[in-house]
């Protein structure tokens, strides 16, 4: 699998079948079918990107009497742009390898929302419904293990052009099935819009997930508290995962990002900044509103989880008088 997250490249190999690769150079790829095959892969990938459609090429075999077919298949983001290319090769006329389950989404740093491409929600995140735009807790709500989570959240919170990240997450699907998914990301900016372009790749067949008693226990405790409990990035002020859903009418917060009243937003952001410096606990009252609804008076309690980079906190939200 070739990531094509940067418009001008370089495009790199991030997986060989279900096995992760660490940003391997496309120009240095080697095929068991010989250099005549491997040398043509970069141009085939470029053609697939430009045409935004599957591409094939037949190459005379150097080690057998049979020619070799090269096949490139695009992976689209929410805007119909190619963010990865799956490449196979084999004897002409043979059946092409089964496509890997791969999807792409784009994190908008300005709006703090994710724009999902085909297959991301149902195939990779295990959601029943499909919406093109998702909030941070909506995206991460099914993630039960996140390797090097803090490093990835740092990439989202502290935008730096051209920064990249690759790692794995374990995602809970319907029926308690667990999937192991490779996550690849690069940052990008266009005018004032800052983005993190991401690829999700199901590698469960090669790297099945380990038991997750710690995450299950954490959610069990949070659920027993009877209030909305989540994890919040203190340096960007966004709840990226809910451990237990808030009470109505704040329950929409699990899947939507509410508007914080302009008069209260600075108070909340100041509390987060204090937590980053020397405070261990904060409590603020603020008004939040979901689309088409009224303002809801809310008590927000913050508790420090870690002050290391990036600083994280536990947040509890309770509607006042409800």
Can you offer a commentary on this structure?
It is built from 7 helices and 19 strands. It is elongated, with a radius of gyration of 22 Å. The model has no long low-confidence stretch (mean pLDDT 85). It starts with a strand and ends with a strand. Among the domains are: 2-73 and 83-97, no CATH class; 212-322, 2-Layer Sandwich (Beta-Lactamase). With 322 residues, the protein is an alpha+beta fold.
What is the strand arrangement across the widest sheet? 9-8-7-13-12-11-10
Uncertain stretches: none
Using only C-alpha atoms, the radius of gyration works out to 22 Å
The CATH H-level homologous superfamily of the domain at 212-322: PAS domain
Q: What number is the mean pLDDT?
A: 85
Oligomer: single chain
SS class = alpha+beta
**CATH fold-level assignment of the domain at 212-322:** Beta-Lactamase
Largest sheet composition: 7 strands, antiparallel
CATH architecture of the domain at 212-322: 2-Layer Sandwich
N-to-C span: 51 Å
């Amino acid at each position: 699998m070739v990531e094509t997250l940067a418009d001008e490249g370089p495009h790199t190999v991030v997986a060989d079948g279900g096995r992760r690769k660490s940003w391997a150079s496309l120009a240095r790829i080697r095929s068991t079918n010989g250099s005549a095959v491997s040398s043509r892969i970069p141009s085939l990938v470029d053609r697939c990107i430009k045409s935004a459609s599957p591409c094939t090429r037949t190459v005379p075999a150097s080690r057998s009497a049979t020619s070799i077919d090269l096949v490139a298949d695009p992976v689209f983001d929410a805007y119909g742009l190619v963010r990865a290319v799956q490449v196979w090769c084999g004897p002409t006329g043979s059946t092409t390898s089964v496509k890997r389950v791969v999807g792409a989404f784009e994190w908008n740093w300005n709006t703090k929302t994710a724009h999902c491409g085909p297959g991301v929600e149902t195939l990779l995140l295990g959601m029943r419904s499909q919406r093109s735009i998702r909030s941070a807790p909506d995206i991460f709500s099914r993630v039960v293990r996140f390797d090097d989570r803090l490093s990835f959240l740092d990439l989202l919170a502290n935008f730096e052009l051209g920064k990249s990240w690759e790692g794995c997450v374990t995602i809970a699907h319907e029926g308690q099935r667990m999937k192991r998914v490779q996550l690849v990301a690069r940052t990008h900016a266009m005018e004032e819009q800052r983005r993190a372009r991401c690829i999700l790749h199901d590698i469960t067949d090669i790297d099945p997930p380990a038991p997750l008693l710690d995450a299950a226990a954490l959610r069990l405790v949070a659920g027993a508290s009877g209030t909305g409990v989540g994890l919040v990035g203190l340096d960007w002020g966004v709840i990226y995962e809910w451990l237990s859903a808030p009470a109505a009418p704040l329950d929409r917060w699990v899947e939507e990002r509410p508007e914080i009243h302009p008069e209260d937003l600075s108070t909340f952001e100041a509390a987060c900044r204090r937590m980053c410096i020397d405070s261990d606990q904060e409590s603020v009252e603020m008004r939040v509103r979901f689309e088409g609804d009224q303002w809801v008076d809310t008590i927000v309690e913050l508790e420090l989880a870690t002050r290391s980079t990036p600083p994280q906190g536990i947040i509890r939200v309770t509607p006042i008088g409800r």
